[in-house]
Amino acid sequence: MIKKLRRKIVLMLVGVYGILYVTVASVFLYTLYKNDISEIKNDIYFHYQTIAENGESYGEGNGIYVVEKDASGELSVYGGEILPAENREEILEVAELILSTEKKSGIVSNYQFENSVVNGTLFIAFTDITDVMQRLSYMALGGAIGFVACLLFWTLFSVWLSGKLVRPVEEGILRQNEFMIMAGHELKTPLSVIKSSLEMIKKRGFDEKYLDYALEESDRMNVLVHEILELSGIEENGTAGANLKLDDYSYCVKGAALVFEASAFEKNILYEMDIQEHIRACFDEKLTARIVGIFIDNALHHTSEGKKVIVSLKKEESGPRKEAVLRVSNEGKEIPKEELDKIFDRFYRVDKSGNRKEGRYGLGLSIANAASGAQKGRIEVVSEGGVTTFCFKIKSI
Description:
alpha+beta; 2 domains; five-stranded antiparallel beta sheet; 12 strands; 20% strand
């Protein structure tokens, strides 16, 4: 849980940095571009003003060319008699390209142009903005390199900061687990003594219903304490507490599933197993058997007579990764969508009634989820169409 929380914090910080950097850089480059283009437009407008007032082009060597289109449609370079013939031909080609766009102003082939009618004559003024675009490209490239460098630094800083931010939470969870383990161990001995004493009293002839109540409650307390200790132990040790080994995963799952055939028969539930043989994976035998047991026990509990429970194990490919996928499906009441994210929480029960009397305290799926994380696997659940499927995925070879 702590790792997921840190990952979310890092992703959030990196995402915010990326958005801010790209936004600021984009606004900065766009502002530079608009300023440069605005200056070029001002020069072109000044050209038109000079032509309108003095009947001549403004200056030489300023990089702005003006082409005149007469009444017959002929194009000529305005005031460009001193230019070499090849230059005039090139300028006229650009003017024809501009006219083909049928736009009054804009950019075409790295030329900023403005068309205007002065004293009844159409003039096409344009200038080469390759240098402007190239300068902006270099700045964008520099910004991208800076972005990558800063992103690396910011990611490292985010990792460090996330550790600082979640440390109080981590310490709180550790203290909570330590308390649960200590409380569980402290409760085990007196509960065992109480249970033994009550059984001894009953054997000596005291057949009171209150003794039965006390014995029943002590049994439930024992189950609860053992589940709390089991969950706390798995969560505290994490992957370090898992005895992972490469072995026949199919054999382990099948052995754990066969145990429930008798229970399904007694409840008149159709029990089917579809287990692919000889799937090899790196897993903890005890934790895997616990997950299988919790899934099947949960399925049998929520399946009515005559309905079906299916246990399947298949090797599947998820991109480049091969996975051993365990699925336990049962026909019965669907889990509401709003409950799906909560069913793995400690002591959470979808069915609030009756579970306590049956010795179910809402810790089974929490234990399964912790056992999954300890084996670097993941659990998914789907409940729709009258069928609920719990899925445990682990890397296979």
